[in-house]
Amino acid sequence: MSQKNQTLGEFIIENQASFKYTSGELSRLINSIRLAAKVVNHEVNKAGLVDIIGAAGETNIQGEDQQKLDVYANDKFIQTLTNRNIVCGIASEEEDDFISINSQDENNNNKYVVLIDPLDGSSNIDVNVSVGTIFSVFRRVTPVGTPVTIEDFLQKGNQQVAAGYVVYGTSTMLVYTTGAGVNGFTLNPAIGTFYLSHPNMQFPENGKIYSVNEGNYIHFPQGIKNYIKYCQMEEGDRPYTSRYIGSLVSDFHRNMIKGGIYLYPKSSKDSNGKLRLLYECNPMAFLAEQANGKASDGFNRILDIQPEELHQRVPFICGSRNMVEKAEEFMRMAQ
Ligand code: AHG
Ligand code: MN
Ligand code: MN
């Protein structure tokens, strides 16, 4: 029986049997993420002390400056998943193309691919504000034992078998789902163990927080502008409170606990918004739905979108169910 203060290791073993494909492979995968998260956590925690803050001098395929910690976290997660020979493919925000693992090895019978945002909210690193890691897991669709192809990665979010995030915050937490609810584990840094601190996490159906980069207001679609004005109106339980950290992981985490909505809409500058479907929106949408919340692009369920490319962007509205539905209503009315 899951109970508070159970360790993540114990929880994984106990819940392995309830997962519909029980091979232990997914458990080993979550274990590897746990290990990489601890290593990255250690580096993030001493960020002010060592030469790890600042730009790495490279840009990723999306033209964004890579921070040293982006590169570090990317390397650590890829190394851990590769060395332990657990997955057959990895796609990352920081890699132009997907990585095929042991594609030459006929004995590679691994079935899972991982998509990852190794360090989310990198613009917050230099100022000691929470950052995170986001991951999404699928079963491959091409035959086991052959090299992975792009098809294995361009699956709809509703095919995810696991997803989660690590938030490197005032405490470090690993929050994940394998499709049977959402559980949160807090790292005890003194002994390096994650403990179940937040069993069965749920978004409150209603909330009073809205999270959006309002500096872009002028560029937002009319439906979003109207919804923001609705949030600010004096009526019933409104006006809502505005909270925006600028790290999706942290904004999502707060809203799941307190009740709220996160919006990164399209704008007249970016026709698909900013967030990436495969390693930001899909995993967060899976978590949201597993926690009784909702995730939408304004009109459609995020998890039903057919991805066309690895680094595809999509407008993202996510959080407490009734709030997301209200925002969708404003989008429809402004059509
Ligand atoms: P990343 O650091 O992985 O590129 O992601 C940053 C994302 C997301 O975490 C955050 O919510 C959003 O960018 C913030 O964007 P703005 O600065 O445009 O508000
Ligand atoms: Mn990100
Ligand atoms: Mn990132």
TrEMBL record:
Residues where Mg(2+) 2 binds: D117, D120, E280
Membrane-spanning segments: none
EC number: 3.1.3.11
Subcellular location: Cytoplasm
Enzyme class: hydrolase
Superkingdom of origin organism: Bacteria
Fructose-1-6-bisphosphatase class 1 C-terminal domain: residues covered: 204-331
Pathway: Carbohydrate biosynthesis; Calvin cycle
Record domain Fructose-1-6-bisphosphatase class I N-terminal: where: 7-199
Binding site for Mg(2+) 1: E93, D117, L119
Cofactors, names only: Mg(2+)
Cross-referenced PROSITE patterns: FBPASE
Alphabetized HAMAP family for the sequence: FBPase_class1 (MF_01855)
Protein name from the UniProt record: Fructose-1,6-bisphosphatase class 1
Native species: Hanstruepera neustonica
